[in-house]
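Re: export button greyed out
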Amino acid sequence: MKKFKFKGLKFLFFVIALLILLAVFDFENIAKIMDKVANMLYRLIPIFILVIVITALINYFLKPKKIMKYFGKDSGKKGILYALLGGIISHGPMYAWYPMLDDMRKHGLKFGLIAIFMYARAVKIPLLPFMIGLFGLPFTIIANIYILIFAVLQGKVIDLLISEKKR
Amino acid sequence: MIIAVIALVAVFQTYVTPDMLSRFFGHGRALDIFDGTFIGAISSGNGAIGYVVADGLKQQGVSSYALVAFILAWTTLSFTHLPAEASVFGVKFTAYRNILTFLSTLFIAYLSVTTLRILF
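Workaround output, generated via the alternate export path:
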């Protein structure tokens, strides 16, 4: 069984120490800060729950790594579609995907598709509730359509700039 | 982690007033977009944290242009990851991709808000 590792512990201690310092030296504002924390938690907790549920569903049904394997095989329109889809459903930090992308590049994956994958990661399905909460549904739809268009444009420009011969 | 970020945002909101922020933002659309992109690019972290920070900025009255640019830059650009990206994919690809990503962020922030205003 994978051992659970608590992330950001140092950061949490830093913030707790900061709050203690503020409580000692600026007691007046600490009540305001706590009020703001409670307010934000009240608004954000339902969204966090939704984010966790959506992430779990994506991992269970879509398997990002499997889709990644497909887009390495085809560099045509299908390749672009798989790169977009892979980017959208991939999660975790970008650098976690570097070894896999590097390996695929060594097996012929175009730089353009890597760029498409990397930019399409800006569309994060689990974080859509946050975006909708912050900007509203119409804006979220418009922005994400632009992100996908610009992801493809980036891929095309990268392929023009880095041709096979120049590699 | 998230709770720590929320607490830090609350501290930020208490001490950095909207008036102080308006000195940094609020100098027109172009500068707001540029500032949002730059701040998003030099910060890095989990996407959810980016939204928590953006939510705090929104409550302080920061414009939609700057917020969209900030969120996009947060999720797609990271100056701290540049050396790692360059070591894996090469300097040329990393330079081209990040310049294009920076430009795309500027355009998308402008186009998204403008399109929304035209349509609704």
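Chain A has a mean pLDDT of 82. The button fix ships in the next patch.
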